[in-house]
Every structure is written in structure tokens, then in C-alpha cells.
Amino acid sequence: MPLVLFWFFAVVMLVGGIAVVSLRNPVASALSMVASFVGLAGLFIGLNAFFVGIIQILVYAGAIMVLFIFIIMLLDLKIEEKRAPKLAPLLGGLGIVLAFTIQLIGILSKTPDVESKPLDLTIASTHFTHSSPGISTKLAAGHLPDVNLIGDILFKGYNLPLQIVGVLLLVATIGVVVLSKRQPT
Length: 185
Fold this sequence. Notes:
The protein is mostly helical.
């Protein structure tokens, strides 16, 4: 990924994240979260994680944000009234940002700038020989089947947690609809 594109997507992501916290309108805040997700997807695609980048757009910027917008509209949230900022939380937040920045600079200054070794796909193919022969043959041929590999691991190794998360999302959506219904007065 060219350095210019990296900085562009990083700035889009950071500005979107700051706007999520700083904007008072809930719908504008949710839409700036979409901008942050788009910047993150651009960074994923720049790292050659095409599947994760596209899923970031489809799932988070698409489906989850539509769900957030519907919930915001169902709850009929109003713009928050402006209050005078208190000094203690502001200084505490700035102190945390400063401490994190110092730690990040300290870690990055000690990290060697070394190229990573390419993956040895033939060794990885032996891991999937018995469980998924299709993935094993693709790995042995030198192709990295990321969608097949993610699906295989997700549905064979984490099927129960995946189903639990789906049920929890359904219950949360039903709960929001029930809570947002207006009581007759």
C-alpha cells in the first residue's frame, strides 16, 4: 500500500472516531462511525486482507450501522443539551492520551524494522489434510483460500459461540423494539 493511501485511510478513520465522540446528534455520530469503518476497511485492504476489508464494509458499515440507525430512530433520541465541561474529566482524559502516546513511542522505538517471512503454505496444508481436504489441496498448490479457511474454522470450531451471538443480537433487537413502544397515556 502506498504511504499516501495509508495516511489517508488512517486520517479518515481517526477523524471519524473523533466525530463519533464529539458530535451531539446521534444520527450524525452514527454516520461518522460509518466513515471510521470505511477507513478501517481501507487499511485492511492495504494489508492484503481483502476478505476482512469487504466484510468490514458489508457487515459493520452496512448491516450493523443500519441496525444502529433504526434503534436511534425507534428510541427517538434528542440532541443532548450542551453543558459546561468540567476540568477534572478533561485533564484525566488528556492524561490518558498522553500516557498512551508515551507508551506507544517507547514500544515503537524499540521494535526492530524487520521484514516478515512469507507463510509456508505446504506446512499449513498438513494441518487440514484430514478435516478439510479441499483447503489442504489449495494450500499445497500455493493458494491461500481465506474465505474457505475462515468459514471452515468458524463453523467447525466456533459454531456454538456463533449461534449464541446470533441469538443475543436477535434478543437485543426485540428488546429495543419492545422498550421503544410508547405506553398509552
